[in-house]
Structure formats: C-alpha cells, structure tokens
Specification:
heterodimer; A: six-stranded antiparallel sheet; 0% helix; B: alpha/beta; Luciferase, domain 3; GMP Synthetase, Chain A, domain 3; nine-stranded mixed sheet; 15 helices; 26 strands; globular
Chain lengths: 103, 502
C-alpha cells in the first residue's frame, strides 16, 4: 500500500515490467503486477514471491494503462509478463486517438 | 525517459542523422548519459550547473544536449546563436551557473560572464558510438522539474524566459504520439533552429515514435530539397517563410519525392495562396497545419490532411475557407474564444483565444504562472471558431488597430489585399493619426513585374470591406521584414511609418 504520485517510477517484483505514474487518485492504494505489489527505487522483492500465472496478461512498452474509474493512469516504460492491477482489479489499455505528425 | 524507452525498444535503430553521420538510439542514450555526468560534476570550488545551455546550429550533438539535461535534472536552455554578443552575455548571466555547449563561431566573438562552464558542442558526440551504451543516470522523477527554458524573441524589451516542466512536455508527447508507431523507413527532416519550440518538440516526438530525425544545420531551400530526396524523407515540418522559399527554389522544376508522405507547417500565418500552391506542387502529400505556442509545449490545434483535402476540393466558399484555419484542438486541449468582459463567444464571433490542458505551461521565470484560477491561459492571439469547431486566427492582440475607438484586425485587411493579383505579400499595421489616434496603414510587396497604384489598392479594399478598413497610408517595399523563423516584425514597419510621419 502506498500513495501513488505523478512521476513515481515502479518496477514489478516478479517480471521485467516498469511503469511511471501519470495520474493518481492521491489516496493509498496497491498497484500490483503479476500478483505482487510493485516496487519503488531501492525496494527489494519479498522472499519467495513469484509471477502468478493467472495474472500474466503482460504489459507492453509505450502503452498507457488506466483503472475503470479513470483516476489512475500509468505509462509502461518497460514491458513484462505480468498483469497490472489496482487494488485487485486489472487495469485496461488506454486507447489513444491517432493524430497526424505535427512537428 | 522517452529516450530510455526508445533505446529499450529498438537500440540499434538510427535515431538521428546530420551531415551524413548517424547516432543509434543506444549511442544517443550513451552519449547523453556521459554528458549528463559531466554536467553534474562541478569544477573544483564552483557550484554545480543549474542550467544546460546550447549555443550552436543544429548538429548530431543537439539531441545529446537535450536528453543529457533531462538526465542531469537541470533545464535545457537553447540560445539563439543569431543574437549579438551583448544580448547573449546578458542571457548567459541570467542562467549562471550554467554548462554551455557551444560551437567555435559563437565563442570567438564574446567574453563569457562568470559561472559559465564551456564545452565544445562537437565533443558531446565524439567517441560515443565506439562505447557501449553505459547505464544512464537515474532520470529525475519530479514531474514539476523544469525540462526546457526558452527565451522569447523579446519583441518588446527584455526577453522573457518561458518555462516548460516535464509534466507539460510529457503530456504533449503522450497525448499526440503513439510510442514506437513509426516504421523503420520513416525519416523526419527537421530544419527549424534548435532554440525554436518546434525544433525541440520534433526531436521528442520523433524519438518517442521511433522515427529517424534528419537534422539540417541551418535551413536552405535547395539543400532542403536535396535532403528530401537523398534521405528518402517521409515527414517534414516547415515555417511559412521556409515553404515560400522552397516553392521559389522549385519554380519551373518538376520534381517528385515519392517517399514524402506528410508535410506539417506552423509557426506563423500561412498565406492561402502559398498553401494552395504547395498542394499542387506536392500532390499526394498529407498537409497538416499545426498551431501552437512556446508556452503551450508546441501544438494545440491541428488541421489534418483530411481537412486539407476536404477544403481544397470543396465547392462552397465557406468550406474552402477552412484551408486558412488552424483546425481543431488536440484531444487533451480545451479552447475558448472570449469577448469583452471575458464572456465566452458563440461560434463565428471573434475575441481572444484561451486554452487549458496539462501541456499548457503558461509560465515565465520570475513572473510565475499566468494561468487563471481555472487553469486557462491567454494566448494573446485573436480568433474565432466556426460552427464545426474549426479555429481561425486573426493576429495578435497587440497588433489590433484602434481607429477612433473601433477595433480593426490587420488580418482581414491583409487577406483582402493579398487577393489582389499584383500583391505578393502585405502587412497591415497601425500608423499614428491625429484625427483617429491610430490609422490603418498597409505595407505592400508587389509581385515581380506587377504594378498597382495606391489609389487602385484603396479602391480594391473599399469594394470588399467597410470603409474604416481602407488603408489611409500605403507604402511599398521590396520585401517584408521577417525573423529567421518566419515571424513578421511588425514593430519594424510601425517604426518606419512613424519615422515617415514624423
């Protein structure tokens, strides 16, 4: 459980996934990947923690993930095997509108 | 972080090309990481650099400096190398202690203020390709930290330092570019100078898209056309004056650029005649008009290729008029037109343009945020929105002519005069008037071999607009004064008119 803030970088305890928080509700929450809470810089994975095969939908680099209430948004900065979840509910990929290149 | 992601996803892909030399994403990241460590290491007895400045034309080292500043956690401050030595000394004194990457030409002509640590810009790249991509320093995580500081051109008084925070820039990139969406064959030609917001946003968007950037040291139309073919350019951005010069350079020549897919333009008023001609000269190319300001982290409105095609092919005049529009706001940007007393205007009514969104920084160093309590930023641009949401610009607030209490926008008079077959360029500005306070004055450039008298041009306007819009004064000039990024220097013309009157 931690308070997620924009700019916070987290990595998965059980796979290669890394994310950066873009928007956050500002209240304490559990952001998990592959069934284990994600780690901030300097934090180590708890002993014996492993990827939960029922939470192995994978993350893709460059995709943005949001919760159902659209209060949390994270950017995947490194892809991995786990599924992202906020307080036990899987995040969804945010669909981006395709825009022509303008610069 | 944007570069880390690109280097993670496709390390061996070419990130940037300049003068035939390349840097891959991995090499660019390695060079930027190395430069960041040098920026963070202060010389003995001196404070660490608070800014990373760039004073040179574009080169392979430009993106190295941009990303290195982010890794080092200090603002990137590209300076205009065309300024005088005195002007540059003043700006450098404002950002000291600073790290300055500069070319030899810039350094030869001035004495540096205290607290400026100089490194040759070329040295940022040297050797980087040979080294393995070192682990980058942990990029700072504070989204409120300043990413970029740009000095405005300072048309009146001291240049202001516009500030863009990481959260503003990131919001623009995430909102307008899909990560890794570019094919390996895609290449973007960047000809705007490094101190222009479009030059910075082009590097960031292309890095995030995975699109190779081909940097021109300085814009030159024949070289631009040469690179278009030689580098199989697929995307390019130009300011209006560049497009005018490209069309002039092409005159009489039939050339095809099969690789070119997209040509974006912005940074100033694009005359309708120029864009119509460009659509003919580059058939099959998708044109995008991008409207944005430094203070809004670049583009806030887009007129898309589909909009261009629809407007160019439209039979009715109203739909065709959209070719002169800057399009509709980006998904993350709200836009309002406000009239007298701050009242939000209905469609079709002109006023001042306000914008809101996470990419809108609206902040200057020392002055603080210019956003109002609800987050709206006054662009100082005048304009209106049509009933389908297309935004039309109508000049800067400061350029409005107040003639006997009546507000006259130079734009409508300029459009009318430009429609005259003998007129190739025109600027309408205020001239001092004892009777009216300000009077309408036009500075006209005639096309080659064309002639038109003052009386004929006045009559032309009288037939099209209200009588108060008819220029009392018309002055002829061989060219209009533009700065190097295509901004019309109206103050120069106002001064000439005052001198003439006085």
């Amino acid at each position: 459980m931690r308070t997620l803030k924009p700019g916070l970088k987290l990595r998965s305890a059980v796979c290669a996934s890394e994310v950066m928080v873009i928007r956050a509700p500002g209240t304490p929450a559990v952001l998990a990947c592959g069934g284990a809470e994600m780690l901030a810089s300097g934090e180590g994975a708890p002993a014996g923690v492993a990827l939960d095969n029922t939470r192995a939908g994978g993350t893709l680099i460059g995709k943005r993930y949001v919760d159902a209430t659209d209060r949390l948004e994270v950017l995947c900065t490194k892809g991995g095997a786990g599924t992202l979840e906020l307080d036990g509910t899987a995040l969804e990929v945010k669909q981006a509108k395709a825009l022509p290149s303008s610069d | 972080m944007l570069l880390d992601m690109a280097a993670e996803a496709h390390p061996g892909r070419i990130a940037v090309t300049c003068d035939g030399s390349n840097l891959s994403y991995a090499s660019l990241r390695g060079a930027a990481g190395q430069a960041a460590r040098r920026m963070s290491a202060a010389p003995a007895g001196q404070p660490p650099a608070a800014h990373a400045a760039w004073l040179d034309t574009n080169s392979l080292a430009t993106p190295v400096a941009l990303f290195a500043a982010a890794y080092a956690g200090i603002p990137y401050v590209p300076l205009n190398y065309r300024l005088t030595a005195a002007e540059l000394q003043e700006l450098l004194a404002r950002i000291a202690p600073a790290w300055l990457a500069a070319g030899p030409a810039a350094l030869d002509r001035m004495t540096l203020p205290a607290g400026i640590q100089v490194v040759p810009s070329a040295g940022l790249v040297a050797g980087s390709a040979a080294q393995p991509a070192a682990a980058s320093p942990e990029a700072p995580q504070d989204p409120r930290a300043i990413a970029v500081q740009l000095f405005t051109s300072g048309t009146s008084g001291t240049p202001k330092a516009a500030v863009l925070r990481h959260e503003n820039v990131l919001s623009y990139i995430l909102g307008s570019v899909e990560f890794g969406s570019a094919g390996e064959e895609e290449a973007a030609l960047v000809a705007v100078p490094p101190y222009h917001i479009a030059g910075i946003s082009a590097l960031l968007s292309s890095t995030y898209a995975g699109r190779r950037v081909v940097l021109m040291r300085e814009f030159e139309p024949r070289e631009w056309l040469h690179l278009l073919a030689a580098e199989s350019i697929t995307h390019a951005f130009v300011v209006p004056t560049m497009l005018v010069r490209i069309l002039e350079a092409l005159r009489g020549e039939r050339r095809s650029f099969p690789a070119l897919r997209a040509l974006a333009y912005g940074g100033g008023r694009m005359p309708l005649a120029v864009i119509e001609r460009a659509l003919e000269v580059f058939p099959g190319v998708g044109f995008t008009n991008a409207y944005g300001l430094t203070e809004t982290s670049s583009t806030i409105c887009l007129l898309t290729p589909e909009d261009h095609r629809a407007a160019a092919g439209a039979a009715d005049a109203l739909a065709r008029q959209r070719l002169g529009s800057v399009g509709r706001p980006l998904p993350g940007v709200e836009l309002q037109v406000r009239g007298a007393g701050g009242v939000v205007q209905p469609a079709g009514e002109a006023g001042l343009i306000f914008v809101r969104g996470a990419q809108v920084a609206g902040e200057y160093r020392g002055t603080g945020s210019l956003l109002d309590e609800h987050g709206w930023f006054a662009t100082q641009d005048r304009g209106w929105i049509d009933d389908e949401g297309y935004v039309f610009l109508d000049g800067r607030e400061d350029d409005v002519i107040v003639r006997g209490g009546e507000n006259i926008s130079p734009g409508e008079v300029e459009e009318a005069l430009l429609a005259h077959p003998a007129v190739s360029d025109v600027a309408v500005v205020a001239a001092p008037s004892e009777q009216w306070g300000e009077a309408v004055a036009a500075v006209v450039v005639l096309g080659a071999g064309q002639a038109a008298s003052i009386a004929v041009l006045q009559q032309w306007v009288r037939e099209r607009l209200r009588s108060s819009r008819v220029p009392e004064t018309i002055m002829f000039r061989d060219t209009l004064p533009y700065n190097e990024t295509g901004k019309l220097l109206r103050r120069v013309l106002r001064q000439e008119l005052r001198n003439r009157a006085g």
